[in-house]
Design brief:
Two copies of one chain form a homodimer. The first copy, chain A, has 21 helices and 23 strands. By secondary structure, the first copy, chain A, is α+β, with helices and mostly antiparallel strands. Chains A, B: It catalyses: tRNA(Asp) + L-aspartate + ATP = L-aspartyl-tRNA(Asp) + AMP + diphosphate.
Chain lengths: 677, 677
């Protein structure tokens, strides 16, 4: 739901990231694959493999010597052989003094050349300096004439750099390569733009030339870390806990209410497959089939048009278990994240705290609270029970009416007049004037249009209730409980942005604040028709056992066995215990949700054939990796992402298809009227 | 290409499979999830986890005692915890005498009940006997009244069976469970057919009720083995050799000549995504992007209508490397298969032999020879240079004309008249009478319509050339080289079927005959227009280095750097070294293949930006697992396969979609004329 706030804020505070070693945060150099200042290239790679190699919570025994020897890529603690089967003996980044005298063959891209004497060669592993032999004219010609970003193979000896010429900033800075032979593997004919300019290019240009953008440190780091984390998740699930990795179809049929599903015409007239939004039905059917511990790194599809930071296809770590309850799923996931988390980050502390949906809404105004900082919402209705302020009176007199407030620490110090105007405008835009924010300054001179109507004892009570300090600022609003909370939840994050833009540290991006949010409502009133109900999540979610009786009397009050996993204010996963009783499932589908039961007859039938109790969860992998790497967008952790508008800017997908290729599928394009004229 | 012959033959010889321990081959019991004779259920599971646990080529040190202790699921050699996080303490199949006295909680399905005294409980791990307490009326009621296939939870003590009542055939046969409490987790209300009848049900019924079919031993075994093998492949690629697992998009644009690609309408009028047949372009672009060791367990899509043993979506182990040659890829794959192969099978012996395409065609009449048995094609043209037989004379006088033969050992003994008629008919049907088979009996009385025209010295020469023994039968044909070979290649397999149907062992299914086939032609004449060329595989395949000059003079003679991996006559993989030179790629696309280069402009541009030399391969996972498990069809190694006609018989996909749901995609159904009338 909504914009990933954490990511936006993250960019505001690059300085906060310097506590993380070996990993370039922010994006200053990501777009310059060939600029000369990339000596810390080694560092991040070194850091990447080191941090990923350590089983969580333990120390790695790194052998000194060559980098490749110290790369331990999984709990196997066996060194991956990066140069097996190929035409190099070593990677560019791994050579050290311990290799002195060794004959090596390297393959890489020409990073830059200095006065036709030195050449710096790059691969994914790092940079190495190559001495261009001045007396071997053929070799010299190759190495001096090949344009930057050309691919060459060089063979030679690892030698010491002359005294005084070592480069301590460069992991390979003590050595260089005395070349005996060289081969131009491919000349870089033309780059689509000057490399220097590339830094300033838009994301659109990066996406169009993704094959070049992938050469950047950040993309290499992100994609390699993603691969490693997923591998460790697989080890945890498959090897440690006996889960079975099962692939489920992506050519499926539309699900009830599946308005966001892509359709795929088949060769039968009028018959379409759909690309499922998740393997939900399949994983439940696997439980019925006795495959009682399922997982899949599942590709899912959602046609959401141009919602920011969404992709039409995305990946989730999809999990389902039989004979499990909420506690079991939570422990499993806590262990999974702890096991797979890169060890250069703060270790994942388990168990994660949990909070009910009602509490999250009342305290943070959202179902995905960022609990790294305070500024909690406080209900101050009681302070104003006897208020004379008209709009507060009005609010309290209505059903669910309330007065709420948040306290912004040092708000009067950091927030300027235009900030307050922007907050007011945001509140007005957001809440359509149904709720009205009020500003109070909590210093000696309370400062607000309504302050004169607030009695002294009310002020004292507010200071007590909200622990208001000098220079704090209070945002107050009145209205229906949920709306008032939701608005203050938004304002809380808005204000955090503003404070951080002023240099106040509120949300430490190195902190991992995991949180379970539980006890969601099972149903919500339909937006278009509030008299009817729709599933808050999906119709297979089991009701809270203690609320089952309410299903037949006040279904809108039933809480569900759904749970969300939140990390620093981002929803990174969600799941539930499912309904395994066919009669209950039928009642909810047919009677409460008024869905066409026929579309799900196979599932209802399956539940009647000895379906075990079961539950599961799905983690959004793209978002999770985004948070782990500190990438500003999920597009930075996906090799070939689509643009905001769902386009592949590199290949130009989607594209026109000639009518004759549509014929076998019995469809034709229905051109919009306005383009026909 | 064509029908997976191995699989057909496999079913003919269940007796050959008895050498494989712990794994039920054939299908006699696969369709009876609840029949009472499934005591070897334990065995296969035991075997499965044991065989998968051993690193190839080494012996596993299994600890005695409980099965769960001896389950070592990967090279980690750490026991997976099958009962972590869930409401059981143990699986049904793991209990032994060593557990005597333990308090256990089990969850499972009621397999059967004997006289309301015993109940056999089943989970994926095996069966266990539960004693129904006669004096606890509540517990007794639950356990006696729950229908078969209901799900129950029982808690109790592991006790010895009374002397004489042990069941040595049952791994848990020494113990039983003295139940203290029981809970009916879900009653099996109705099964869609009588379990007894299920055995005889068609595959269509199995697919319709897949959630029940998955409970069968065979499906559990196949899917669990698949998961384990893929996990070991990942360990090999990712942990041992530094490959990066990268997900590539499945919403792409159509590729030139991509007539078999599903189209997906987008929300832009007339613009469509395509589901790619493989990540070919993406993996090459990753190489350009410096991600020099890529792999992915990739979902691919091909709309082939109703070709047997194909699925509209399938999975391949997709691999690409930079700076590699054919030898490197071959070694990588040989190591991969050796590492991941289940250790209860014969170990994979490397390196695999290799054979040129020309040799495979000349000797076996196919590009995927089954080299487990002889009956090779012999060119006997020279024997008949001076023949008086008219049709042989005619054949030899034509370009590429030849006379070929295969020798069927003991053919006269095993092949009956009707077999010969059926072979003749097959040959006539297959070759459209362009080539004519001739039957000779190689015993004292040569027996064939044309035998009188064959001179004695010709007979002697044939016997010498083809090493004909008494009672052998020779199949002879004359015609253009390729056609003659292709026909005899088919007849060779036909005859092998016939001989094996008579009980002759020709193709040992436990034998693993891997074979590399290399040096394919780069181009083939187009079927519809033989004057033009098309790629034999795909347009990115690099030409053989020694044939490059022919590209500009006689392109049809150019051999490619493509290679296929064949196992027992099945193509299980294929790949190539790719073109990394933009000019060469452009020449082949535009000049030789006359493709629209614009559709691939991004790839051509990428090649010009410093593309490293690279190559790769894709293994067909479904087919591979099929061969490893001995399953008769790839539908038996896929959890939710489509039918022959591409239908999901369980959910009824593809399905109708209301016109209003098509509107956002700007398409409408074009109903065929004949249904409009």
């Amino acid at each position: 739901m909504g914009i990933p706030r954490f990511l936006r804020h993250f960019c505001v505070f690059p300085k906060l990231t310097t506590t993380i070693q070996h990993q370039p945060r922010g994006i200053p150099e990501r777009l310059s694959p060939s600029c000369g200042s990339n000596m810390h290239f080694h560092n991040w790679l070194n850091g990447l493999y080191q941090c990923l190699s350590k089983p969580s919570g333990r120390t790695t025994q790194l052998t000194c010597g060559s980098l490749s020897r110290s790369l331990v890529l999984s709990s196997h603690r066996r060194n991956p052989e990066f140069s097996s089967f190929v035409a190099r003996t070593n990677t560019c980044g791994e050579l050290r003094s311990s290799h002195l005298g060794q004959e090596v063959t390297l393959c890489g891209w020409i990073q830059y050349r200095r006065q036709n004497i030195f050449l710096v060669l790059r691969d994914f592993h790092g940079l190495v300096q190559v001495v261009i032999p001045q007396d071997e004219s053929a070799v010299k010609k190759i190495l001096c004439e090949a344009p930057v970003e050309s691919v060459v193979q060089v063979s030679g000896t690892v030698i010491s750099r002359p005294p005084g010429q070592e480069n301590p900033k460069m992991p390979t800075g003590e050595i260089e390569i005395k070349v005996k032979s060289a081969k131009l593997l491919n000349s870089c004919k033309k780059l689509p733009f000057e490399i220097k300019d590339f830094v300033k290019k838009t994301e659109a240009l990066r996406l169009k030339y993704r094959f070049l953008d992938l050469r950047s440190f950040q993309m290499q780091y992100n994609l390699r870390l993603r691969s490693q984390m997923v591998m460790k998740m697989r080890e945890y699930l498959c090897n440690l806990h006996g889960f079975v990795d099962i692939e489920t179809p992506t050519l499926f049929k539309r699900t009830p209410g599946g308005a966001k599903e892509f359709v795929i015409p088949s060769r039968e007239p009028g018959k379409f497959y759909s690309l499922p939004q998740s393997p939900q039905q399949f994983k439940q059917l696997l439980m019925v089939g006795g495959l009682d511990r399922y997982f899949q790194v599942a590709r899912c599809y959602r046609d959401e048009g141009s919602r920011p930071d969404r992709q039409p296809e995305f990946t989730q770590i999809d999990i389902e278990m039989s004979f499990v309850d909420q506690t079991g799923i939570r422990s499993l996931i806590e262990g999974l994240l702890q096991y797979s988390w890169p060890s250069d980050k703060d270790p994942v502390v388990v168990p994660f705290p949990s909070m009910t949906f009602a509490e999250a809404l009342a305290t943070y105004g959202t179902d995905k609270p960022d609990i790294r900082f305070g500024m909690k919402i406080v209900d101050i209705s009681d302070v104003f029970r006897n208020t004379e302020v008209k709009f507060l009176q009005d609010a309290l007199s209505k059903p669910e009416g309330s007065i709420k407030a948040i306290c912004i620490p040092d708000g009067t110090k950091y927030l300027k007049k235009k900030d307050i105007e922007s907050i007011t405008k945001f509140a007005t835009d957001y809440s359509d004037q149904e709720v009205l924010p009020v500003f109070l300054k909590a210093n000696r001179n309370w400062n607000s249009p309504v302050v004169k109507f607030i009695k002294d004892e009310q002020k004292l009570e507010l200071i007590r209730l909200m622990e208001i300090q000098e220079e704090d600022m209070v945002l107050l609003t009145a209205g229906e409980h949920k709306k008032a909370c939701a608005l203050l939840g938004k304002l809380r994050l808005e204000c955090a942005d503003l404070l951080e833009a002023r240099g106040v540290l509120l949300r430490d991006p190195t902190l991992l604040s995991f949180l379970w949010v539980v006890d969601f409502p099972l149903f919500l009133p339909k937006e278009e028709n509030p008299g009817e109900l729709e599933s808050a999540h999906h119709p297979f979610t089991a009701p809270h056992t203690s609320d089952i009786h309410l299903l037949y009397t006040e279904p809108e009050k039933v809480r569900s066995q759904h749970y969300d996993l939140v990390l620093n204010g981002n929803e990174i996963g969600g799941g539930s215990i499912r309904i395994h009783d066919a009669k209950l499932q039928h009642y909810i589908l047919a009677t409460l949700l008024k869905e066409d039961v026929k579309l799900l007859s196979h599932l209802l039938q399956a539940l009647d054939c000895g379906a075990p109790p079961h539950g599961g969860i799905a983690l959004g992998l793209d978002r999770l990796i985004c948070l782990v790497t500190g990438a500003p967008s999920i597009r930075d952790v996906i090799a070939f992402p689509k643009s905001f508008r769902g386009h592949d800017l590199m290949s130009n997908a989607p594209d026109s298809v000639p009518p004759e290729e549509l014929k076998p599928y019995h469809i034709q394009v229905l051109w919009p009227k306005d383009t026909e004229a």
